[in-house]
Amino acid sequence: MAQQFDVVVIGSGPGGYVAAIKAAQLGLKTAIVEKWLTKDEKPSYGGTCLNVGCIPSKALLESSEKYVEAAHDFKLHGIGLKDLKIDVKAMMERKVGIVNKLTQGVSGLLKGNGVTAFEGKGMLKSNKVVEVTKHDGSTETLEGKNVILATGSVPVEIPPTPTDGKLIVDSEGALEFDSVPKRLGVIGAGVIGLELGSVWRRLGSEVVVLEAMDTFLPVADQGVAKDAFKYFTKKEGMDIRLGTRVTGSEVKKNKVEVTFEDSDGEKKETFDKLIVCVGRRPYTEGCLDKGCGVELDERGFIQVDDQCATTVPGVFAIGDVVRGPMLAHKGSEEGLMVAEIIAGHKAQMNYDAIPNVIYTHPEMAWVGKTEEELKSEGVDYKVGAFPMAAIGRAMAQNATDGQVKIIADAKTDRVLGMHIFAAGASEMIAQGVIALEFASSAEDLQLTCFAHPTNSEAVHEAALAVDNMAIHKVNRKKR
């Protein structure tokens, strides 16, 4: 006989486990199904983000940043080092330790909140029945009054460069190198490509990034993106080639030869390792029985409304498997919203106030509208920007690259967007998120007292600059 639950969640990534915990906290009998196994065949919670995504990549980014700081910046502080080297094995062991601590933490949170966990692959069948295929091949049936699909995403593969897990790898494989490649190729100059390219460039790799788009980070505000492109190519030394379409790859003598086309015609480059990171796609394979009634759109995403309800009453979908940015925090917020709705509470999510972050150094972060979007929409706006080079705390940290940019409505003064390229941008952007969430004006930020000395003073100055009133830079002359 099938076990009965108020809520059955399929997938324990940042969307799924948060939804399950919240549902349990709201008094709902909740189950969660997770198929992930570690290399040593142990169950693991947290999905892609905790196991092979956000967390391990940030651990490596932090290690590589410390290495560069020790190699180049310590001497500015009067600190001398001799025989500096990177121990890749130790760096990887630290990464694994962080991942294990967090995934075990999620397991403990699920248990502590009374969520019943099932290990295996979940498939939604008709009438909100979930069939769990366990790792030993046996099956178990769960019946949920409500079902939340949180099955996540997987890397996109492209025919010209099929991954082999050794020389040609996806984003997961790029987190497992046992040594620093002498020459590294990266296909895709998006978030993942820039982050992974940065890790190995800092540790000594010659990095070539091949990007099909003619524009660098078209989703970001181009004023800030150009600032970042200049830094990555000139100061960090990444060779980022835009307008470059990869047409093939071949493994030769333990190296990868990549064929591509640019404005000058066909070319070839040889690399010790090649990372393919051209995006991710929703993962639904084997998760939806033909008779379950859930519909997909033309791109393979599960169709949902603004409250993440699917075409089947009582079945919801959240995170990477539905429309919107593929971001862990977006999935988590959707999980909280859906749990509240199932419990009979009113809940909604502001999709206009979701922050985006690229964890390079300096970091890029943004929320709200870009100048390019506002121009295309015909919105009359005003802009204020402030350079980190004029911030005292940034000078003390030897982190003066970048800027903060704020865009406000020319008529209402409401903040429409904030865009940052700076050390610590991932933390600073929260101020922009709060401003958008509370419909703040640029004047609200102008009248806010910011601690000194902090990097966040650049947010204050950028808000003042919106009205040509910045204090610590010479403002443009009024016409």
Question: How is this structure best described in words?
Answer:
It is a single chain. Strand 9, helix 5 and strand 10 (206-210) form a beta-alpha-beta unit. Helix 1 runs parallel beside helix 7 and helix 3 (54-73) runs antiparallel to helix 4. The protein folds into three domains: 3-155 and 281-349, 3-Layer(bba) Sandwich (FAD/NAD(P)-binding domain); 168-278, FAD/NAD(P)-binding domain; 353-466, Enolase-like, domain 1 (2-Layer Sandwich), CATH 3.30.390.30. The chain has helices at 16-25, 47-52, 54-73, 88-112, 191-202, 222-235, 328-342, 371-377, 392-396, 425-437, 442-446, 457-466, and strands at residues 3-10, 30-34, 116-119, 121-124, 129-133, 139-149, 153-155, 168-169, 183-187, 206-210, 239-241, 245-252, 255-262, 265-271, 273-276, 280-282, 315-317, 356-358, 363-368, 381-387, 403-409, 415-422. The strands form five sheets. Strands 1, 2, 3, 4, 5, 6 and 17 form a seven-stranded mixed beta sheet that branches. The chain has a five-stranded parallel beta sheet with strand order 8-15-9-10-11. A five-stranded antiparallel beta sheet has the order 18-19-22-21-20, sandwiched between helices. The longest helix is centred in the N-terminal third of the chain and has 25 residues, at 88-112. The termini are far apart. It has twelve helices and 22 strands. This is Dihydrolipoyl dehydrogenase. Disulfide bonds join 49-54. One of its GO terms (cellular component) is cytoplasm. Residues 354-463 form the Pyridine nucleotide-disulphide oxidoreductase dimerisation domain.
